[in-house]
Specification:
Rieske_2Fe-2S_sf; iron; 4-stranded antiparallel β-sheet; binds FE2/S2 (inorganic) cluster; Iron-sulfur protein; Rieske_Fe-S_prot_C; 3-stranded antiparallel β-sheet; 2 iron, 2 sulfur cluster binding
């Protein structure tokens, strides 16, 4: 064992770092760098908290024909950041695709379930969360339906 493996003696100032302290510190720094690179955090991204869709298009932007949205299911309009549901015939509703958990975008529809790809949150056709980790539902996105065409309101 060398002198660098021992803890500093009382009264020594400044205290030299032991090899273990240096290695531990480097490991913590590496973990911090990894978290920064992957973007894993518990802070929701701004779009999730602002109610924005995180997509493009303003009021009046045409999403598509109502026939694209199956009854009892939904369609994701990725470019506009909107998911349109049709829980029952003629009952359309729009929601932001931004997941309230950490801001990923809903990109999957399986029957009546809207699925976030990042951590598996599942939302119902009314936008409510049915399975976490998201703790709240999707933000409503006003839409209009005219002559068989769905648009952003
Ligand atoms: S961002 Fe984590 S479940 Fe959607």
């Amino acid at each position: 064992m060398s002198d660098q493996d021992t803890e500093p003696t009382a009264g020594a100032y400044p205290a030299p770092l032991s090899r273990r302290a240096v290695v531990t510190g480097a490991g913590a720094a590496a973990i911090g760098a990894t978290l920064a690179v992957t973007g894993c955090s518990t802070t929701p991204r701004s779009a999730a908290g602002s109610g924005g869709t995180g997509g493009t298009g303003g009021a009046g932007t045409v999403l598509g024909p109502t026939a694209e949205v199956p009854v009892g299911s939904a369609k994701v309009y990725r470019t506009q950041g909107v998911v349109v549901t049709q829980a029952a015939a003629g009952e359309f509703a729009g929601f932001s695709t931004v997941c309230p958990h950490q801001g990923c975008k809903i990109n999957g529809v399986q029957g009546t379930s809207l699925i976030c790809p990042c951590h598996g949150s599942v939302f119902a056709l009314d936008g409510s969360v049915t399975s976490g980790p998201a703790a709240s539902g999707l933000a409503p996105q006003p839409i209009t339906v005219n002559d068989g065409e769905i648009s952003l309101a």
